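Weekend entry, working from home. Most of the wet-lab plans are on hold until the incubator is repaired, so I used the time to fold the two sequences that have been sitting in the queue since the last round of cloning. Logging both here for the record. First:
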Amino acid sequence: MTEKLRLNKFISDSGICSRREADKYIEQGHVFVNGKRATVGAQVSKHDRVTLNGNLIEAKVGNDFVFLAFNKPIGIISTTEISVKDSIIDYIGYHERIFPIGRLDKESQGLIFLTNNGDIVNKILRAGNKHEKEYIVTVNKPITDEFIQKMGNGVPILGETTKKCKVTKESVFSFKIVLIQGLNRQIRRMCEYFDYEVVKLERIRIMNIGLKGLGIGEWRQLDTDEISQIMTKLESSSSTVDKRKNQESRTKSQEPKVRNTKAVESKKKDRNTNPNPKSKELRGQADFKKPNRNSVASTRKSGNGKSGNKKPVR
């Protein structure tokens, strides 16, 4: 019997977009199955012909997907819009469509994952799955024991209290913090609540992957063992968001005022032998922009990357 799966997952597995985005394209009439307009919730098999705005979609199988670890420099923006100056996608210049898993704000640096597997994004990011992200934070004044204790017990920001987390003092002005959630500018907002300003913020670990051997501005493919460990951790993880909780959050009043709030400015060529293609010329060979209501540019094209060890920090 031929195995079937939901259409949005089939599209997500192809690396084109997330499941949520796939549902939008289906609703907008961009997706056809065997020549007929698709509906949200439809199921397909590997024998079905699925097209997105006329482009044939081929779902990736098994571990046949891209999974990169990138040491993001300050100034690079975690966006998939390659037209944006200093976007992470333009900086890396990978020859397939990829997108970051989560974000690091422009003023922050450190580890961020990129992939073309939309099915694993929410599994890694959802706080309920308790996958750790570790940071080293430098602030503008001496750190007290009281600050460490209160940061770890939860801080009221964005209309909710952050989850309890592990916080340890590293030096007079720096501390480590391990989070399982990722609210918007969470660490900066937590520090602001106690009248501290973040001077430097670096993510040094996501789950079982650290920055060791990865210089600022460099990226690499995760190896088979690393990917296997991650996939094992994700087996019991859910990609479903608690819609009721999200609705409650949206209906809450505006974020409570914080003390002394400050505007802080702060291919399929052998990927192992050619792990670091950074040529922007490759980006010009294919159009990876997200589709809109009138057009969907989803054709995936391959190219030969240029190898290199490090790109100068802008």
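Second, folded right after the first finished:
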Amino acid sequence: MPFQWMPSRRKFLETAATLSSLSSLSAQTPSYSGQVPRRPLGKTGAQVSILGVGGYHLGSAETLDEAKRIVAMALDAGINFFDCAWDYHKGRSEEWLGAALAGKRDQAFLMTKVCTHGRDKNVAMRMLEESLRRLRTDHLDLWQIHEVIYDNDPDLIFTPNGAAEALVQAKKEGKVRFVGFTGHKDPAIHLKMLSHDFAFDTVQMPLNCMDASFRSFEEQVLPEVNRRGMAALGMKSMGGSGEMVRAGAVTAAEALSYAMSLPVAVTISGMESVGVLNQNLETARGFKPLPATAMAQLRERCRLDAADGRWELFKTTKKYDGDEGRLQHGFPDATELPA
């Protein structure tokens, strides 16, 4: 007899409410036959695909031509959300994404991130101009503060003349439509950012079937983001580099399905090849959220593997902490860290 796990009444009701919210989001947009569905981006009025292309992995493609193929095929499949950051591959990710979107910019919802890591508004605005040039556009659809992962980051961001003021200025000047922040380390840091009551449009966080049981963004941050009417952006659905899939804890389809079934606008996934894109499209095309019972069973199945964070290395190690941020905080870069 297959294992059947029955969730507690409280957890069942919470999950049912989540799925009900997700179904409501999906109902507001047309369902494209054979294409990736779209959802509202919070209260912004924008519509984004439930699957987004991650910029770091795009810059890891074997060649620029391969990156262009990934972007073209993604657009054809209905994906319109493209993620990037100023420091990914020292600018190559933005340059390649800009080249891939040449002549197609109007089909894309384009996001990149600013990497001040405590530096002032002037540095942020300079980075914005560099990002616009690399991406070959005169505006961003979304500009986010990158990698808010250190305890003092919120204080630095909201200090006078800090990065938060750059978000306001860029929006006022029409260089960005919407603004947000990202981070992958600790839910408490996200909540500290939200405590400033800044008018963020989006909040990006790691969301996967193991996160639910360990330092959980799903439990602690996602409800608050939704309560405020901001758009939640999910990332690291498979552990950052597919760790939990390679370990055999879950399949790629299970991991992606769980993440996209949460009340998020988009799940951003790294796709460095056409093969990985096609694998993800098999799950995302015509996607319907998992039932509450299936979500609960998957969480329970992963609970033991999740307990020490070994497949969420972005929370427990420095593996996913960028060198740019470490430098500005006075820490050694990755090459100087213990093996």
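Plan for Monday: verify the second prediction. The chain has 16 helices and ten strands.
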